[in-house]
Design a protein that fits this description.
single chain; eight-stranded mixed beta sheet; 25% helix
Length: 171
């Protein structure tokens, strides 16, 4: 796949890319999967239809998971997928959706703390802002916002945002 330009603009401790269309969003998922990170927590924030699940599908597809098997876990709350990430390592992808999680007790019942202890594990959490106080310090926050021209603005902040923005730019 030919790389599209990703122009991440640094704004303090955040990195912003504008004009991200559906093709580029999928490419960002491909680039994420190439990151050689054993563990990663990605907090996905955005309105309905902003592309949270689409980005998770792209990340999972780049790990060899059939995109059709990656749906929004709004009612199941969590899906688990086996994939192969950067460097050919086996990686567990946990796709969580906290939109319907009622409270902190239910959040804790999902077992996020235990999942964080597993090796080669990525947590991809939609609507993570609902439980921001309970997210680990090592969280990469990804904000997706729809623009009037049907593209997106994506903002990265938090753990590893600098290195990840650089990697996504150079991939």
């Amino acid at each position: 796949m030919e790389s599209s330009p990703l122009d991440w603009q640094r704004q303090g401790d955040t990195f912003v890319a504008s004009g991200v269309d559906s093709k580029l969003l999928s490419e960002i998922g491909d680039r994420f999967a190439k990151l050689d990170l054993d563990r990663l927590v990605v907090a996905l924030v955005g309105t309905l239809g902003a592309g949270k699940t689409t980005l998770v599908q792209a990340i999972a597809a780049a790990h060899g998971v059939d995109r059709a098997n990656v749906t929004s876990p709004t009612f199941t709350l969590m899906q688990r997928h086996h994939g192969t990430g950067g460097g050919g390592q086996t990686r567990m992808l946990y796709h969580l959706d906290t939109y319907r999680v009622a409270d902190v007790d239910e959040w804790m019942e999902l077992g996020v703390d235990e999942l964080l202890q597993e090796p080669s594990t990525w947590l991809l959490i939609e609507w993570a802002d609902r439980f921001a106080d309970w997210m680990p310090d090592e969280t990469l926050w990804v904000h997706l916002e729809m623009d009037p021209d049907s593209t997106r603005t994506i903002t990265l902040r938090g753990h590893g945002a600098d290195a990840i923005a650089t990697s996504l730019r150079e991939s």
